[in-house]
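Notes, p. 3: input format for complexes.
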Amino acid sequence: MSISENCLRKYAELIVRTGANVRPGQVVLLTIGVEQHEFAALLMEECYKAGAKKVNVDWTYDVQKRLNYLYAGKDVLSEVLPWEEAKLKQMVEDLPCRIFIVSDDPDALSGVDPEKLSGVMQARGKVMKPYRNAIEGKHQWVIAAYPSEKWAKKCFPDDENAVDKLWDAILKTVRVTEDNDPVEEWKKHTEFIETKAAWLNEQAFSCLHYKSENGTDFSVTLIPEARWEGARDVNSRNGAAYIPNMPTEEIFTSPIAGKCEGTLVAVKPLSWNSQLIEDFSITFENGRAVSCKAAKGQKLLEKMIKMDEGAAMLGEVALVPKESPVNQCGFLFYETLFDENACCHCALGMGFKEVLPGGDDMTMEQAQGHGINDSIIHVDFMVGADDLSIDGIRPDGTIVPVFRNGTWA
Ligand code: ZN
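Output follows (409 residues plus zinc ion):
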């Protein structure tokens, strides 16, 4: 059995209405794989029904990306051409509502030289960063997924029902069933996350300490004025609330860049730039990753933490209980959108200035002054072991259990 017309329609509507919350008169920029053109049409229609002024589509094709990386030169790929930059300028002007549909083959870039990959990303990232900073906090966006054949086969090798299985899992995690009202489900879910975030904000922890049998022993200092957030975000320009990630289970904040110590052991493989890093740990001293060990992808991991100044520092800590529906699916999605919502994680690289009061209107430099990390990368990795304990330490030294055995204490 494959996905029904009814569920597909509900899912598209959920992405547009609850996720992106497209407002009348807005421009929408939809980024989606060419193979998902039928779903693109469905989404476009929902956007127009929601009152979109214009829907533009950026078509992606992971095979094109692969072939370019294999055959074109590093310098050629590194260049951001004038027309590409013009598009970015237009985006800053339009502040479009952005919808990203992920469906890439997790192995699309396997075999591509990591040096080339990180070099190109670095060069392009530098040019694109100011535009990204300029729209940050000023537009609505959502990332959701659509299972491609290759992605499904990666999750369920040798299974002829792989796509259906991945569909089932995706729909479960985004709370769409044949006869429910997903919009209502998301309201309840959002409220739960916001209640937990409010509790964390009340506690005003100055520090978190992580401990687990697998070797994780780590403490991180939080920014006193930074807030814990989850589920919803608000476009500061028009006040529209949107849900950037579907699914989402996390409550997150940005710690002080350069203030953490100890070792974090990953509990799930990490897919970065369509390549895999497995069985790895990262050790921090004075807030910076000083060493890392990976059974697979060692070179890639080393490259990652050297992408720029901020790549070796943390930009995010996020709490996700192990009961998360993503975790309950019981398999690795090879896609951060899902895997980061399976259990607790941290991210190397760029932090979120919006967790600061008034952060949306700050420049990245101002946010950095408050301790937010800056980088061209933001890479989440999972540390939520089944036995993970997290203690919150209040400024007066009181210790409060936050997580025990991988879930809320
Ligand atoms: Zn996260």
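The mean pLDDT is 94.
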